[in-house]
Design goal:
By secondary structure, this protein is mainly alpha-helical. The protein has 4 helices and 3 strands, in the order ααββααβ.
Length: 112
């Protein structure tokens, strides 16, 4: 996906809430800096993988982010704005979708 399209996707968020917009930008850039630069490259933060026999389960950071959003909504964070935190996690999720070719591959067979 080209950069102009990614930037255009953020503008509607800006009109909904400035806190969500800033959170998305910070989350996206943070995930970009801390994760692998391209598909199958290790970043500063290691991937979560489980080996089960001949299969590997890869828990992508976007899966973790999507599972955190309902928890953030249910349990209010007193020290931060909920909108900002939801935006932050949403930015991490978006980075996982937009920057990797294998974002949808969770279970795969290990070649032997």
């Amino acid at each position: 996906m080209n950069k102009k399209y990614k930037i255009l996707l953020t503008f509607p968020i800006f009109f909904i809430s400035i806190q969500i917009f800033i959170g998305v930008l910070i989350g996206y850039v943070s995930a970009l800096l801390l994760s692998g630069k391209e598909t199958k490259k290790q970043g500063i933060i290691k991937s979560i993988k489980f080996i089960l026999g001949n299969y590997c389960i890869h828990i992508h950071h976007w899966i973790i982010g999507l599972s955190l959003i309902p928890l953030i909504i249910y349990y209010n964070f007193v020290f931060l704005s909920n909108y900002f935190v939801i935006g932050l996690v949403s930015g991490v999720v978006c980075q996982g979708f937009f920057c990797y070719d294998d974002w949808n591959k969770i279970l795969f067979r290990i070649k032997q």
